[in-house]
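Apologies for my clumsy wording, but can you show me some protein sequence, whichever is easiest, together with the matching structure tokens, please?
=====
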Amino acid sequence: MRSTSIKVCYFIGFVICAAMIGFAFYLEYVDYLLPCPLCQLQRITFAIVGALFLIAAIIPVKRVTNVIYGLLIGLFCAIGALLAGRQVYLQHLPAGSHESCSANLTYLLKVFSLDKALAMAIKGTGECAEVLWRFLGLNIAEWTLIVFIVLGLLAFLQMFRAKKSV
């Protein structure tokens, strides 16, 4: 009975990730807000976290697997939170204190090696600092940061719940 509620919580984590990715595509293809390289990295991180949540919801609950899921999901949520935090930081810098434009992540990966492309994407540029959308006073990067933190806490909560119940 308890493992079922753990699986439901893992599935809820997956649904949240899918909703975040779906909303990002909505903003891109309906509202025409093109993602900066940091946004693209955050999308990839949401996809990884969502896949981990889905796998955790499908595979039978065991103590060892829940610890592994909790640690992996927590790690990728921390990476996502760092990426979102970097973007929030860039958005709060004074205007003109960063480069004005950059190529998208796909182009960077085609032209540069993986480590250089990721370093350039994480460094951020003017597109990463633009705030084009707000909801309840928070912009996309701030909401993303909050969601990554909540998902990481959910994964750790599930890890400790599973230790007690299985």
Q: What stands out?
A: The mean pLDDT is 77. The beta strands are 134-135, 138-139.
